[in-house]
Amino acid sequence: EVQLVDSGGGLVQPGGSLRLSCAASGFTFSSYWMSWVRQAPGKGLEWVASIKQDGSDKYYVDSVKGRFTISRDNAKNSLYLQMNSLRAEDTAVYYCARGGSYFPGWGQGTLVTVSS
Amino acid sequence: EIVMTQSPATLSVSPGERATLSCRASQSVSSTLAWYQQKPGQAPRLLIYAASTRATGIPARFSGSGSGTEFTLTIISLQSEDFAVYYCQQYSNWPWTFGQGTKVEIK
Description:
Chain A is mainly beta and 116 residues long. Chain A is built from no helices and eleven strands. In chain B, 0% of the residues lie in helices and 50% in strands. Chain B is globular and about 35 Å long.
């Protein structure tokens, strides 16, 4: 069974940093693109970033370029999102998702709140 | 970026009836379109990809159609578990973008 477990969310002040993690199991992690998608409270879905199987290609939505970094460790079956210079508008539930185009598997999400 | 526009924002349907949801792209995305279902407090679930291919385990009452800029998700004979929010998403051009969602509620 495909399982994605998101963690690392929390309350952080504007300008602060946070690192999200996603632990994958039930599939060959190293064979799949992986992505992060977020959802602000009461709002719709927003794709954030995607990374190729070997980490050689990465794509980001413009609003996070230069502040967020997606990475992966295939030996640990883990996906990461390093978030720096956080803003109030980054407040959202962040979902890890399997895939780099459409997303057939999702984590349960982890809430990031940026507030002073 | 490609803007995805869904209509209507809210659809009131009686159980057992058909629901028809629309999604329009600001430019052609060919058939690189997906549909998701999201229930309160849950992660989204993939229903349809490549505009018309049902994802694994998705019941046949869900169907997708369209290409280019106009797409439709049809749910025939709505069941109680189908009342949720539905999103379309294009994966033709980076950045991938979602529609704002259509809420299907009980009439």
